[in-house]
Fold these 3 entries.
Entry 1:
Amino acid sequence: MLNVGQIEEGFVLDHIPAGKAMSIYYHLGLDKFDGCVAIIKNARSGKLVKKDILKVECDINALDLDVLAVIDHTITVNVVKDGVIVEKKTLVLPKEIKGVMKCKNPRCITSIEQELPHIFYLADSDKEIYRCKYCDEKNSEKM
Ligand SMILES: [Zn+2]
């Protein structure tokens, strides 16, 4: 049996709100990733009733933590090296994020010019509101 509990180098994403692990899996591009990934759904937790855990065996510089922060910045990121947790990272909402959210405004320049990258900026860090850099449309996409 494959031992998914032990990873040599990579990440253990803990305290993911239950049900969000798959969304994170796709947003991090792990469906196209050929390394070892373990998804634990609905694990019992003292802090939350249920939580998801995601374990990824990869180069520790390979994951885009900005994307993760946008999805949920309360997730605990444990960095694993040589089989032990060497660091716990705190996620901070990025000021600007590129290519993650898509602008839904049909009059936005990104709808007309398809090759333009979708860039959103952090408009309100308390409410976690991102707005399109081109037209100021609020991001309505659920991450
Ligand atoms: Zn826009």
Entry 2:
Amino acid sequence: MYLGKCLCGEVSIRLNGSISDIIHCHCSLCRKNSGTAFATNGFINTADFEITSGKSSLSSFSFKPGRSRHFCSQCGSPVYSSNEDDPKRLRIRLGIIDSDIKERPISHNFVSSKANWEVLEADLPHYEGLEPNRK
Ligand SMILES: [Zn+2]
Ligand SMILES: [Zn+2]
């Protein structure tokens, strides 16, 4: 089980399962949304995910039809993303989680969109888009 909360503490989450397909995403959407070089995201099962407090403080922004980013309206912390075409899974920002995370990132994605000032670490594979096995 993983616990997490936003920067101001208003929104708390609990994840009762594991996190899969963790990647560092360098796409321009993730860069702008995080305000930094990349976002580290992973899939979780919707059924395993609970907002334990502050649900009414969540706002969302739809960046493509059916795709929404949900964030704390008080502090702006990204909490999770949803995709209407894939309702059984959510995408979570690993930075929201306070617990030690067992799973590890598998790749750097959308590296051709990376900031020109960022130097990628060489240990993980680099992909021009999504990692090849993304379902
Ligand atoms: Zn907050
Ligand atoms: Zn991205």
Entry 3:
Amino acid sequence: MTTENGGDVRLAGISKTYGSFTAVKPLDLTVPQGSFFALLGASGCGKTTTLRMIAGLEEPSSGTVMLGDQDVTALPPYKRPVNTVFQSYALFPHLDIFENVAFGLRRRGIKSVKKQVGEMLDLVQLGEQARKKPHQLSGGQQQRVAVARALINHPKVLLLDEPLGALDLKLRRQMQLELKRIQTEVGITFVHVTHDQEEAMTMADTVAVMNAGRVEQLGAPADLYENPGSTFVANFLGTSNFIEAEVAGRSGEDLTLKAGDGKLVLPAARCTAATAIGGKVLVGVRPEKISLTHADDAGSIPDGRNRITGRVVDSSFIGVSTQYVIDSPLCDAFEVYSQNIERDSRLAPGAEVVLHWNPAHTFGLDAAQDIEAGAAKVEEDAAA
Ligand SMILES: Nc1ncnc2c1ncn2[C@@H]1O[C@H](COP(=O)(O)OP(=O)(O)OP(=O)(O)O)[C@@H](O)[C@H]1O
Ligand SMILES: [Mg+2]
């Protein structure tokens, strides 16, 4: 049931203000037809508001919403080729699963619904449950009913607002893959709102990271992760380590940087900051890119790697990996994740170590920003 063209969502200069408060700053965004698009951001950053403006449930303060070639800004929700699935799936409790899914067809006066409902239930793998009532299903099954109920209307775009928010972690993971499979099968545009970075990265082709009412960065998950354009994105998507450094020179494709009394190498192409000699740069490196070697074995580290020294202050064994916190003169809580293949038992708190990594895994950001941006918000979310 792939739709024809026209499932592009294009937002142009769209914004929303409540009194003097701006929930969404003027935003330009194109979601290509057939893509799985995630709006990711901390609580209150404007995700739901953006989604509701696409659905027509919220009137924009400025700007236009286009679906394909159609300007839908002035259309009421029910006239837009869009359906929404919310966190509370609000199934009809007195109707069985079959009738819940058939609802949209019956409302349009369609009498022979059996084939279509059957196909929809097969799509979400609930064919066997058709005659059960919603309360007889698990949370994940109910969520799939909600998806089937929305998809049976053949929307061009399906909007999902934290649809997995009520599920426990394991079921959430399962449903992420399930939703991704359904999207691939039906081929329509999904716009998925979440504050869970792993969820966004697992499911979406393209992720827009929102921060305080605007899109901070947009891209494919791996690209955002490997090439964050700001400390906010670097911290919000996973964990990053930052070292303050100064541009000392250039050698071929690389910048050489002075950090403390040491030297680091950064590919010039991976630096989004100005690179004039003497300029300040925040050097970033992800925890899993770093190797740890006990200081006694420092001689065995190959040449050409970036290296700094430090002392282990904490180590947590979490099964697939061990996560270390290292105190270094350049950064007081450097995080290093080591896969548990061959563990060096000397790497315990108090051990003197060398941290080293391939310079290609280094990125450089403008130093005039908050190193902690985005990090605290993740913790707030986790606590909430
Ligand atoms: N009707 C309203 N009147 C006033 N302020 C509002 C209204 N609706 C939303 N806001 C504010 O706009 C901001 C964005 O809200 P929105 O619901 O879009 O956030 P969100 O990113 O979806 O957050 P969450 O992850 O918590 O759902 C918030 O600060 C919120 O308090
Ligand atoms: Mg919301």
